[in-house]
Write a structure and sequence with these properties.
Layout (H helix, E strand, L loop, with lengths): L1 H58 L2 H10 L3 H13 L4 H9 L8 H14 L4 H7 L2 H11 L2 H19 L1
Helix pairs in contact: 1-4, 3-5, 3-8, 5-8, 6-7
């Protein structure tokens, strides 16, 4: 966290100095005003996102995940993980802290990777934007072409995990 804060601070200082050099204090204040307005608009979204993260973490306990994994193994777990990732709502404010919680829940790596690839490839919240910016036909073709990727990757890592456990 400290390193990223330093990088962002240095970049901010550089941009403020550049704005001052180009347009004076008025340009710097215009940029700061835009920043504050964006922060205010984003604050409620960020708060709601962290509430969702907290609720998901208390609902999806280690015991719940272990029961789920006893019921669904192999390709079923991979498919469900990929679909759950694709249907998972929200952007990085919700998604990254949630997947970080998987570490504490002993989720098998192949299910984790299926979830991550499913979120990145299937993300259904992106479909309306793709359809409006490109076309619905091209967006659906992209979804169909990339459909097997999270499943193939999940199955690959499941097989790799089985090999690794046999060697131990």
């Amino acid at each position: 966290m400290k390193q990223s804060l330093v990088i962002v601070s240095v970049l901010s200082a550089f941009l403020i100095i550049s704005a001052f050099d180009i347009g004076g204090i008025d340009l710097v204040l215009a940029g700061i005003t835009l920043s504050v307005n964006t922060a205010i608009r984003s604050a409620l979204l960020i708060l709601a996102s962290f509430i969702i993260i907290g609720q998901l973490n208390v609902l999806l306990t280690k015991d719940v995940i272990e029961k789920w994994l006893q019921k669904f193994k192999g390709i079923k777990a991979v498919i469900i993980g990929a679909l759950a990732g694709g249907l998972f709502p929200g952007g990085p404010y919700i998604y990254y802290p949630f997947i970080a919680s998987f570490k504490d829940k002993n989720l098998p790596f192949y299910v984790f990777i299926s979830f991550v690839f499913g979120k990145e490839i299937y993300d259904v919240t992106r479909l309306p934007m793709e359809a409006s910016l490109v076309s619905l036909r091209i967006a659906l073709i992209r979804y169909l072409i990339t459909l097997p990727i999270p499943i193939v990757v999940g199955l690959y890592f499941e097989r790799r995990d089985k090999k690794w456990h046999k060697q131990q």
